[in-house]
Amino acid sequence: MSRPLLQDRTAVITGAAQGIGYAIAETYIAEGARVVLGDLDADTVKQAAERLGGPGKAIGVRCEVTDSADVDALLQAALDTYGGVDVMVNNAGITRDATMRTMTEDQFDQVVSVHLKGTWNGTRKAAAIMRERKSGAIVNLSSLSGKVGLVGQTNYSAAKAGIVGLSKAAAKEVAHHGIRVNAIQPGLIRTPMTEAMPERVWEQKMTEIPLGRAGEVGEIASVALFLACDLSSYMTGTVLEVTGGRLM
């Protein structure tokens, strides 16, 4: 029988109490990893960790990714509980959609801070740990919105485009330490957040997808697994679109 792809590795995943982050955690555990889930709600993230098997496989830690000290504590929990950090997935995010005319400065600042500063915090702090072992994989979640720009998302599109630039710059900085940094750009994925869209908006987006359907969270998790494991050992600074062909 083949060895699990993430056997004996420890992964830290932000925004992991539900949706894409939780699906990535499930997939990583199935491939032999131990995971540390970070999320804003302490009770919710601890319950998610219990569903994944509890301390032998997963722990949950409250983390506000815009807070440098919180990210330090999240990574320290991985070191204290499992002895290392082999994979970092920066997935935490929020939306505050509005047109430029109606968007407030606070709505802009919140989205850019959570996505872009949060990813920067997770990338730089995980890399500082990984460089000691001369190995590691960092996976950053961007979005199709960061490639094409979507109406009502000047904040989100800007932040997600920024994650691409951040990932490429970081990949160049840490490659000589044996650390790889890659990004994923999901398209329309079926999550609680997207399913809350008005039906007319959902249907309009569906017309743009050649495969004719929305993606599932597990289809993002599979790509996150690929980027975390040795199957992608010669890839860094790449951006993988998982969009069903939408807006290619």
Automatic annotation (TrEMBL):
The keyword Glycosyltransferase does not apply. InterPro entries: KR_dom (IPR057326), NAD(P)-bd_dom_sf (IPR036291), Sc_DH/Rdtase_CS (IPR020904), SDR_fam (IPR002347). It comes from the Bacteria. One of its GO terms (biological process) is fatty acid elongation. Residues 9-192 form the Ketoreductase domain. Keywords: Oxidoreductase. GO terms for molecular function: oxidoreductase activity, acting on the CH-OH group of donors, NAD or NADP as acceptor. Signal peptide: none annotated. The keyword Oxidoreductase applies. Belongs to the short-chain dehydrogenases/reductases (SDR) family. NCBIfam families: PRK05653.1-3, PRK07231.1. PANTHER family: 3-OXOACYL-[ACYL-CARRIER-PROTEIN] REDUCTASE, CHLOROPLASTIC, SHORT-CHAIN DEHYDROGENASES/REDUCTASES FAMILY MEMBER. This is 3-oxoacyl-[acyl-carrier protein] reductase.
